[in-house]
Amino acid sequence: MPLYEYKCNDCKKIFEVLHRSSSNLEKVECPECKSENYTKLFSAFAPSVKGEPSMTFNDTTCSNGSCCMNNNGMCTNN
After folding, report:
1. Digit-coded pLDDT (tens) for 25-70
2. Which of 8, 24, 44, 67 has a CA positioned 20 to 30 A from the CA of residue 61?
3. Looking at residue 24, what is its pLDDT?
4. Does residue 29 sit within a domain?
């Protein structure tokens, strides 16, 4: 079951929807404002390595709070 990430164009909330099938996507509605005006976001594949903590798409901030993850999943603003 594919998990897609969306951004509501009305209230700007980012949310995820788990669809039953990638070939038959169900109706998407913002859980905050119930709008159907959204943009589908690109999600990053986040593999985990044995013994290493896994990171999700939302784990993109460094200790200083800025978005700083490069294409290899490494923080660039230390």
Report:
1. 778 999 999 999 999 998 666 565 666 555 544 444 455 454 555 5
2. 8
3. 75
4. yes
- Long-range Cβ pairs for the range 68-77 (8 Å, 24+): 73/44, 73/46
Quote the domain boundaries for residue 14: 3-40
- What tokens appear for 70 in the block? 């490069």
Per-residue b or e along 58-67, where b marks 16 or more CB atoms closer than 10 Å to that residue's CB? eeeeeeeeee
DSSP-assigned letter for residue 29: -
* Cβ contact 36:15 at 8 Å: no
Based on the structure, what is the number of domains in the chain? 1
Structure tokens at 27: 């109706």
Q: Kindly state whether residue 64 falls inside one of the protein's structural domains.
A: no
